[in-house]
UniProtKB/TrEMBL annotation:
Keywords: DNA damage, DNA repair, Glycosidase, Hydrolase. Belongs to the DNA glycosylase MPG family. NCBIfam families: 3mg, PRK00802.1-3. SUPFAM superfamilies: FMT C-terminal domain-like. HAMAP family: 3MGH. It comes from Nonomuraea cypriaca. InterPro entries: Formyl_transferase-like_C_sf, MPG, MPG_sf. This is Putative 3-methyladenine DNA glycosylase. The keyword NAD does not apply. GO terms for biological process: base-excision repair.
Length: 226
DNA sequence: AAGGCGATTGGCT
DNA sequence: GCCAATCGCCTTG
């Protein structure tokens, strides 16, 4: 699939200057391009914003890790988690609020060969089905934290180190579903996960599971239960 | 200074 | 369905 089929314009920065739970459903059907790969978003989650969101990385204030989330809208917030995965967000609202939309899943619509080579064991529909899978398919890494996703589309193509959020084809409100966010341990009722109903690239929902204590922590000095 | 645990994934039962 | 992998961040002592 060639780049020529991506005829859509870039989303303006003003698109992101709203609370993340308003931006999130509007991102469904839009396209994120990075290098030669493009992904059409089918599932997103909103975090942070003007009010209190205990599930957001920004809940306890600004730190070196979450600094980008407090910065200008339209930039990528890429974080490292579970010691092995990267997840990508788009920063929302003007500076200082700490608000972003997690990109949870999508469909690869350009650069299929490149995405397949990055995730060689995955079926096509699973290439970007999950937040860490999506970042691998797009080639997003720690170094892309803070990258500006608002830029003009160049007829010559996209340089490898750039990202662009395209208008794509926003979906009809009737096909948008919403529900609790995946895998969060707090604010379990906040319905800030949004997805396209019936789309095969939407990831399976998982509730938060408290982790069992490590073997070392339980076997040393543990009093046997009676 | 130390330990708990995470906006997850893939492999195995 | 269950669980290990793997490490940086943040809380607590």
């Amino acid at each position: 699939m060639g780049r020529g089929e991506l005829s859509s314009a870039a989303l303006p920065r003003s698109f992101f200057d709203r609370p993340s739970h308003e931006v999130a459903p509007d991102l469904l059907g839009r396209v994120l391009v990075h290098g030669s790969v493009a992904v059409r978003l089918t599932e997103v989650e909103a975090y942070g914003g003007p009010g209190e969101d205990p599930a957001a990385h920004t809940y306890r204030g600004r730190t070196p890790r979450n600094a980008v989330m407090f910065g200008p809208p339209g930039h990528l917030y890429v974080y490292f988690t579970y010691g092995m995965h990267f997840c990508a967000n788009l920063v929302c609202l003007s500076e200082g609020f700490g608000s972003a939309v997690l990109l949870r899943a999508g469909e690869v619509v350009a650069g299929l060969d490149e995405a397949r080579s990055r995730r060689s064991k995955a079926k096509d529909r699973d290439l970007a089905r999950g937040p860490a899978r999506l970042t691998v398919a797009l080639g997003l890494l720690r170094e892309h934290n803070g990258l500006d996703a608002v830029r003009e589309v160049s007829p010559a193509g996209w340089p490898r180190q750039s990202a662009t959020m395209l208008e794509g084809r926003p979906v009809l409100p009737e096909v948008i579903r919403s529900g609790p966010r995946t895998g969060v341990s707090t604010a379990k009722e906040t319905p800030w996960r949004f997805w396209i109903d019936g789309d095969p690239s939407v990831s399976p929902y998982r509730a938060h599971v408290p982790r069992r204590r490590s073997v070392a922590a339980t076997s040393v000095g543990e009093v046997p239960s009676s």
